[in-house]
UniProtKB/TrEMBL annotation:
GO cellular component: cytosol
Active site residues according to the UniProt entry: 98, 170
Gene3D superfamilies, alphabetized: Aldolase class I
Function recorded in the entry: Involved in the gluconeogenesis. Catalyzes stereospecifically the conversion of dihydroxyacetone phosphate (DHAP) to D-glyceraldehyde-3-phosphate (G3P).
Keywords attached to this entry: Cytoplasm, Gluconeogenesis, Glycolysis, Isomerase
This protein's name: Triosephosphate isomerase
UniProt GO molecular function: triose-phosphate isomerase activity
EC assignment: 5.3.1.1
Length: 256
């Protein structure tokens, strides 16, 4: 198995952007531009935009994701949303363990793992984010750190469940900074994640798993990044808010 048979996935992470009318406008602009995409196209939107996005994407090839979910099924967790609440709406994907959640909202590898398991149990497909901070890279521990994050995030996740898991390698120093990892750096760490998956689940699962790169991917640099043998797609922040840029990245994934 090789890249040609893995599912390329381009997912937008809108973060805390867009009101409902703005969300509808953006989805309507994206749809015709990506209708012939040869990859999976996902818009991960704020909770308040999920219904709007689901309605606007009906009958199209654009899928909808959330940006987080809680690990408990229900209960006294004011302000939180459960995985089942998302699947009940028709949401298919969820971003978990994004570095902004880790940095600003106290997420740890352990809580990311709980969320991954809860999401899978509810029938959601998690996009699990891992990635080193600049100091980790400077200290030469990127490989160890990313392998550890991957292993903890996937603790007790079965090989069968891995069919529904996407991993996003997102070096924290490249997110929202305009500093992209070089294509070689991105590929090196995505390959390392794949070998970590092989050690956990065997080569077949590792080869079949989609591993995205995220971190200032844009219309200009997408082609080179997505052409790398172990980079199977992208998790896109800023550039996913501009329909033509997002569509250019989708086109690059289709060709890459
Ligand atoms: C992200 O939010 O996951 C991301 C990669 O952001 P940006 O593309 O803006 O760096």
């Amino acid at each position: 198995m090789n890249k040609a048979v893995r599912k390329a996935v381009i997912a937008g992470n809108w973060k805390m952007n867009k009101t409902r009318p703005e969300a509808k406008e953006l989805i309507e602009a994206i749809k015709p531009l990506v209708k012939d995409a040869g990859c999976e196209v996902i818009c991960c939107v704020p909770f308040t935009n999920l219904e709007t996005a689901l309605e606007a994407t009906k009958g199209s090839n654009v899928k909808v994701g959330a940006e987080n979910c809680h690990f408990e099924k229900s209960g006294a967790f004011t302000g939180e949303i459960s995985a089942e609440m998302l699947t009940e709406m028709g949401v298919e994907y969820v971003v978990l363990g994004h570095s902004e959640r880790r940095q600003y909202f106290g997420e740890t590898d352990e809580t990311v793992n709980k969320r991954v398991r809860a999401a899978l149990a509810a029938g959601l497909k998690p996009i699990v984010c891992v990635g080193e901070m600049l100091k980790d890279r400077e200290n030469g521990i990127t490989a160890e750190l990313v392998a550890m994050q991957t292993k903890i995030a996937l603790k007790d996740v079965t090989a069968e469940e891995m069919k529904n898991v996407i991993i996003a390698y997102e070096p924290v120093w490249a997110i929202g900074t305009g500093k992209t990892a070089t294509a070689e750096q991105a590929n090196e760490v995505c390959a390392l994640i794949r070998s970590t998956l092989a050690s956990l689940y065997g080569a077949e699962v590792a080869e079949a798993t989609t591993i995205q790169y995220g971190g200032s991917m844009n219309a200009k640099n997408a082609e080179e990044l997505l052409a790398q043998p172990d980079v199977d797609g992208g998790l896109i922040g800023g550039a996913s808010l501009k329909a033509p840029d997002f569509a250019t990245i989708v086109a690059a994934a289709t060709n890459g």
